Each structure stands twice: as C-alpha cells, then as structure tokens.
Amino acid sequence: MTFPDFVLFDIDGTLMAGSSDHLRVLMRTANKSLGINVQIEIQHEKPTLNGRSIAGMIDAQLLRLLMPVESQNGNHHISLADLVAEYGNDYRESIQSGTISPGKILPGVESFLRVLDSHQIPRVLSTGNISMVASAKLAAVGLAHGFCFDAHLGFGDLHADRADLVKAALTGLPFPAVRGKGLLIGDTAPDMKAAATAGLFGAAVLTGSDDENELRLAGADRIFAGMQEVDEFCASPKSPWIAINGKSKSG
After folding, report:
1. H helices of 8-152, where?
2. Per the database entry, which stretches of residues form a coiled coil (predicted)?
C-alpha cells in the first residue's frame, strides 16, 4: 500500500452530501444581525448568493461580503468575530431542534477514515465551515471523532480565502508538513487551487458542486467518482499520488 503522510478533508460535497443547510442559517443570521436581505439558494450542492456562485468560498468570506465596510473596519456595532459566534450558535440550535438537516455521510467515507486511522495517518479538516458549524455537523452524523475543531486551524472563522485556510490546516498536523507528501480531498475548484499552492496532491471527488472540467482546469492531480475510489487508489501498491509542483511521481 502507498499512503500519503497526511490527509486534508473538505466537508460539504466531500465527506457529506446535502450538508449545506448551514448556508441557510448564515443567511438568516446575516439578515437578522446586519439588517439586510440576501438569498442563498442551494441546488445540486452548488450554492449561490443572490444569483452568484459561492461554491468553495469560506464562511468568513461570505460574511465579509455581506458586512458594511464600517463593520469590517471595526467601527460598527458588530464585528466579524461576533457575527461568526452568533451564526455558530444559531446553527447548533437549529441542528438540536431538527429544523435543518446536517446532511448524510457519503459512501466510502467511514471506511477510508478507518483505514487512515489503522495506519496512523494524521487527518485534518480544511473546510469553509466555521469550527462551530463543522463540529456540530460532524457530531450529528458520528464523524467528529479524530478531528480537531480549533477555530485557528482549517476552518472558515477568520481566514481570507481557501488558500489561507489550507495553510492554517497544516499547522494542526503533529509534524511539519513537507511539500509533496500530503493529500487534499475536495470537490471544488478552490480546493484544487489551494492544494496546488500548498504543494499537496489534489484529489478531486465528483460528489459535490464542481464538474470534471472545472476541477481539471483548477489543477486537480486526479479526479475520482467518490471516496470509495480514493480509498482504492491509496491502497494500490503503485499509487503515484505524490504531487510536487503539480507533477505526480511514484511514491
């Protein structure tokens, strides 16, 4: 078997399907706290904000888009940190009350996580969800075990974009990350672009928002139908999964 030294996972469209109800909560929180009227639509794992695609954007990016300029400069009654906390609490309450769905685990995910754990391969999250949302969402379906939910790691609480988020996620590893030694699994073009920037093998799965052409153009090293194929690929004795500067070689 040929395994990476570590694995980064996106959540929505990668580990889980139908799990984007958090965006509806984000919309409600923003409308309530900022006094604005925005509409987020979710069709086939591809969310849009007032008609604009927001696939792959992180929660902090969305909130900054919605906040008035004076709030972003700290001269308004609500800060980004306050808005994130309110949104996280609203999501947890919605999950507990059953008014939204956390989503469902995609095929092959639980098996692959068990394989990684059995080989002591570190795994961390690299998700646009804020940490409170990620924690509540994964706990609701029994996937939270083995992941750390520190908001300063690979979560959408405060980072500028997906590339910054991946850098932060790597600090959660038990050892320094080495370029070309890790695997990032995601379903969007921003996931794949961030993987390339960080020197990670970009494993794209077709279980989320973006199609094969979008993922390939974004620099995906390999495209899989789903997590089951990723599991089989890593288990192959000749998996050329290691990516250095966008080029693969045998591991």
Report:
1. 22-34, 59-66, 69-72, 80-97, 109-118, 131-140
2. none
pLDDT tens, position by position, 37-67: 888 888 767 888 888 888 889 999 999 988 8
The token pair at 130 is: 């804020």
Check if the beta carbon of residue 18 is closer than 8 Å to that of residue 208: no
- Specify the pTM: 0.90
Q: Could you tell me the residue ranges of all domains in the chain?
A: 6-18+104-249, 22-97
CA atoms of 81 and 149, how far apart (whole Å): 16
Phi, psi for 223 (deg, rounded to 5): -120, 130
Name the token pair of 42.
């979710």
Average pLDDT over residues 194-201: 95
In this structure, what is the dihedral angle of CA atoms 165, 33, 94, 187, given to the nearest 10 degrees?
Answer: -30
Strands (E), the chain: 6-9, 16-17, 40-43, 46-49, 52-53, 104-105, 123-125, 182-186, 201-205, 222-224, 242-244, 247-249
Whole-angstrom CA distances from 146 to 99, 189, 202, 203 are 27, 26, 22, 21
Cβ neighbours of residue 99 closer than 8 Å, sequence gap 6 or more: none
Domain 6-18+104-249 CATH assignment equals 3.40.50.1000: yes
Which helix (H) or strand (E) element contains residue 235?
helix 227-235
